[in-house]
Amino acid sequence: MEATPFLAGWIQNQRPRAMSSKNSTVFYRNLEETLDLRRKQRTCYTLKDSPWKYSDAVDFSSNDTLSLNNSGRLRSEFMKELASHPNLPVGSTGSRIMDGNSEYIELVEREISRFHGAESGLIFGSGFEANMAVLAAVPRPGDAIVYDELVHASIHDGMLHSQALTRTPFRHNDPDVFYEVLESVRSSQPLVAQGKRCVIIAVESVYSMDGDICPLRELVTIANDVLPAGNAQFFIDEAHSTGVIGPSGAGLVNELGLEGEIAIRVHTFGKAMGSNGAIVLGNQTLKTAVTNLARPFIYTTAPSFPAIAAIRAAYKLVANEKTNAARAHVQDLVKYFFVKIGRDSIWEDAVARGILSVPLADDWEDAPLHSHIVPIRTRDSYSYYLMFHLQLNKLCVFPVEYPTVPKGQGRVRLAFHADNTKEDVDTLISTICEWAKEMMKIEDDDTAGEKVPSAARLVYTLI
Ligand SMILES: Cc1ncc(COP(=O)(O)O)c(C=O)c1O
User: Fold this and answer.
1) How far apart are CA 99 and CA 301, in angstroms?
2) Start-end of H helices in 117-263
3) Which residues form the Aminotransferase class I/classII large domain (predicted)?
4) CA-to-CA distance for 338 and 345, rounded, in angstroms?
5) CA angle 30-33-37, nearest 5°?
6) Is 32 helix (H, G, I), strand (E, B) or coil?
7) How far, in Å, from the CA of 139 to the mean position of ligand 1?
């Protein structure tokens, strides 16, 4: 079975090691003890190739949403881009503020900014760095940050390093709670109420573990009502909408026509754009501020020519006919999944018993847009069972557990791709439902001593 090397590597890495490292120095023993806490919860990460890379298993997990990598399209465009600049050196030879700047990187920044309808842009080596850098550098002393409770780890790390006076979460995607939080910041911080200090509001366009979309227009309206002096400004991470949502995949802000309302946008290139890196979009003041204040921008080597060439190649592909079709196909697949899973004969029973739920499927018809990310929720201890079952049936998915998602909210995260077919989705649905049926049978059978489903039993033999 193609998934076996992957699952064997994974399960073997969950085996406790601290006891067997008794003779090591305290340095390694302490590390192994810490890792054992992860291993006990079966959440110790393993570096292994996903089976879809070396077998005919189907990719329902990677971030190659538009299949720019899998199809080879990005590679061809990238090779053309490299070939058309035969004299550019590979390395950047320094930080952007010293020797690492180049006309080429500035040209690409201008092109990307224009594509997204922004005044200017600043490229970073990764989305993590960009988020960290901006959230740490931009808030001025006395400013407040208000953020959606589910924002990415990089945003949390940035906020922690910032000089903001307060950092307040609001309930995920909930405009009413957002209003209350903003109002309480305004009423408790006189300088904010007087328009002398700012509130920076941090959100994501598509939430990476939930797949739902930010009600951005509503949040902007609320922010303008509560703080009409213009001292509430938005930071939006467009990592999972870049390439996928909006006109030619330009993102949620472009989809909603809010380019003039959002001060800071971060688009990342490691997801649907198929390479890596990120750009911070905003006006010239923002760009100069980030250039001067953001430590992860200043104290690092500028991205190499091939890294920028890959980004440029992706932007050359993102708006063409083939990619438009790929984007539409992903939307179709997601809707197809929502319709078809609801029609499976065991669905209602499995949902009623709490064995399966797909929160995004509940009211999908009312949603104007869909992301390609669809989490499947099950009982807390069952996510791994479902993952084993799908992997052993040549469907690549990963479970997501605490601390990536809140405690008790583990899930299996599906990501749809342009290369997936409707037949792949049919197989996915029937395999998920087959597993749910097995779990219901196990739960119903009082006499069954063995409560572990067949796929998990097989995986446990690999330890
Ligand atoms: C929402 C979000 N923002 C930022 C990042 C970081 O981007 P990158 O992978 O380019 O570092 C990720 C990646 O996991 C993400 O999901």
Assistant:
1) 9
2) 127-137, 153-160, 175-188, 190-193, 216-226, 252-256
3) 56-432
4) 14
5) 140
6) helix
7) 21
* Interatomic CA distance for residues 130 and 159, integer angstroms: 12
Mean pLDDT of 305-315: 98
Of 371, 51, 13, give the one whose Cα is nearest residue 208: 371
Tell me, using a 6 A CB cutoff, whether residue 162 lines ligand 1: no
CA 190 to centroid of ligand 1, rounded, Å: 35
User: At CA 278, angle to CA 163 and CA 332, rounded to 5?
Assistant: 120
Domain coordinates in residue numbering, the chain: 1-41, 49-70+323-461, 85-318
Q: Is the pLDDT of residue 185 over 90?
A: yes
85-318 CATH, one of 3.40.50.10260, 3.40.640.10, 3.40.50.300, 3.90.1150.200: 3.40.640.10
Asked, colleague to colleague, whether 49-70+323-461 and 85-318 share their fold, the answer is no
Question: What DSSP letter does each residue of 164-181 carry, written as one string?
Answer: -SEEEEE-TT-HHHHHHH
Least confident range from 78-82, 192-196, 233-237, 376-380: namely 376-380
Contact yes or no for 74/317 (Cβ under 8 A): yes
* 404 C-beta closer than 6 A to ligand 1: no
Picking from 201, 131, 216, the residue whose alpha carbon sits closest to that of residue 166 is 201
Q: Where do we find the tokens 């959440």?
A: 43
In CATH, what class is 49-70+323-461?
alpha beta
User: What is this structure's pTM?
Assistant: 0.95
